[in-house]
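Quarterly update, task 2.4: NAP-bound model.
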Amino acid sequence: MFKPISMPDGRQTSSLGFGCASLMNIPSSSERTYILDLAYDHGITHFDTARMYGLGHAEQELRPLLATKRSKITLATKFGLDNPLLFKKFSNRQSLLRSLIRRNKLTTRLAKKLYSHIAVSRTFSSEACQESLLHSLKSLNTDLVDILYMHDPLPSDQFDPSLPILFDSFKANGLIRYIGIAANPSSASYYINKYPSLFDAIQLGTSSPSLALTPHVTGVHSFFGHIRHLAPILQSSFSTAPALCRLWSDRLSIDLTLKPNLAAVVLAAKQLVNPSSIHLFSTTKPGNLAHIMTCIQNSSWSDAELISFARFLSTLSSKYAII
Ligand SMILES: NC(=O)c1ccc[n+]([C@@H]2O[C@H](COP(=O)([O-])OP(=O)(O)OC[C@H]3O[C@@H](n4cnc5c(N)ncnc54)[C@H](OP(=O)(O)O)[C@@H]3O)[C@@H](O)[C@H]2O)c1
């Protein structure tokens, strides 16, 4: 359980990766450092962030961990998207604002609605890419990122034809090891077909049509959204059919009415089905992180039971089919 995976250069990293998109939802800097350290202490050595996460502040939160563990960690960041100016203006006070907003459901909904209506800026020019990477390296306080992803490019975006040359120069200068694409399946497909040998890494959502794309990128594959998308489907299925919940709880010897247990089984099943990929996940709760990791590490689930569970997941919704 929880085996390492090999990067194209033979270096190993963990098959579970910690995502930093929601990191700034954790109120204090010390708690953010704590959860990142905790992830590392539980065997996670891959961390995924982006220039835009946490209104541009998520990368710098990784500094304390990287200061002592950089050589043992694989690090991914992204370029191309930037936050709306209106939101960036408040970025220094985001912890306080986020906690005030999350105090009630209405303000949370309103903030999400406002964010979705104000367009993020999308720039895939060489100048912007270079500036973004240099900013990322400074924020992370490191000399190199392992994977630099194009962040969610759409076919309609202006792709600067000089980007491939720039990517090569980043590699030659030791600033990055790999270039990746993190996009929805149709956009990823568009860019992979147009630039067949450009990408060493691909990052996709948990839905299965995306799996068809992965053979076209021979390097690192990572997936996100397993818990966010699959746990609610499972929970709703279990609440309408409690006998099903009891059945799977018995088969896997774990109480699947508990959310962190559900998350652990989903991640373990995903890992078994796709053993050479990185499976990204995240939580803002240290207790849940420790619970999920301990559960996966100490589990005695048989491969056959996990595969059956994966098949059960796939039958719940063809949209989320996983094998
Ligand atoms: N390339 C892209 O466009 C893209 C898009 C999305 C994500 N990513 C990357 O992937 C990382 C992981 O993101 P993710 O969304 O895939 O993480 P995830 O692990 O699938 O979902 C984490 C979220 O689900 C919540 N959660 C936990 N248990 C749940 C349950 N039983 N039911 C419902 N929700 C539950 C967590 O809440 P708590 O915090 O309360 O535990 C947390 O907010 C990101 O941080 C980012 O690095 C990339």
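Highlight for this quarter: Residues 19-22, 48, 152, 182, 203, 224-228, 231-232, 259, 262-263, 280-285, 288 surround NAP (CB under 6 Å).
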